[in-house]
Amino acid sequence: MANQEAAASSPPGAEDANTRIEVDAAFNDDDSAYAASLVSDTTSLRTSFREYKWEHGRRYTAAEDTKYWGPNDEKQQAAEDLLHEMHKFILEGKLHQAPLSDPKTALDVGCGIGSWAIEFADENPACTVTGIDLSPIQPTFVPPNLRFEVDDINKPWTYPEGHFDFVHIRNMLGTVPNWTEFHKTAFKHIKPGGWVEQVELSSVMRSEDGSIPEGSAIQRWTGLFDDIGDKLGITFRAAESAYPAITEAGFINVTQRIIKVPLGPWPKDKRLKSWGQWCRYFSLEGMEGFALRSFVDVLGAHCLRSET
Q1: CATH of the domain at 140
Q2: pTM: predicted TM-score of the whole model, two decimal places
Q3: Alpha-carbon span 275 to 90, nearest angstrom
């Protein structure tokens, strides 16, 4: 998050990177209690863009000149909606942390199914909101101050310079070749005094007690995505790249906030236990879509479909 003004404070109860999470001694890893998910409308924006590609039993964008690896079918849309709800749950219902003051124009980069853009437009009826994505998978019944566009953020932006009060970026790991150049572009298109906010989940799994051993499957998972990024000319470490990229792009008063999110309901703290349930449920729902095309097409792995 960056601007020419003071940064917002951390969300109440947020776990920073230096806070150790206490394990619930009664936790049973066989517990199957997961958070509920909301399934989104799958109506397309344009009929001409419904000619999707089908690979490995999943549906992908029809764009020919993109390296994007993620599917856009109903299964992935459900996982994306779950992730949106998880972000809101962690941030106590807030859609952003930037202290916006009567924004008139906002851009949601990589809007996906449009959940964030729809809710932001509802909360800010005087703001013209634009959501862009490679796939027209957003609903048609939206607030009157919101429009969706099919576009590639890695191509030259068609908006006027100094146009937006707020540029929102979320869950864009593995999509941008150079985050510094991306934020330089965003800088040009934001009004003086405007805000940019980027929210990312780290692709690196970490433990506090050394319980992720060297060479374990979960550690190799991170390394495989580093290999995929190298081959595609992108990075899956958007969370780690955001702060230096935003700073190097010319923004000032840049705030970085790191929140620990457990994977699974193992924490003793009830709030963190709920976060862990959401995170594990999303991981299980979205893992196949996250890995399938990139592992098979880029790394040449065999396609082994797993059901959970």
Answers
A1: 3.40.50.150
A2: 0.80
A3: 7
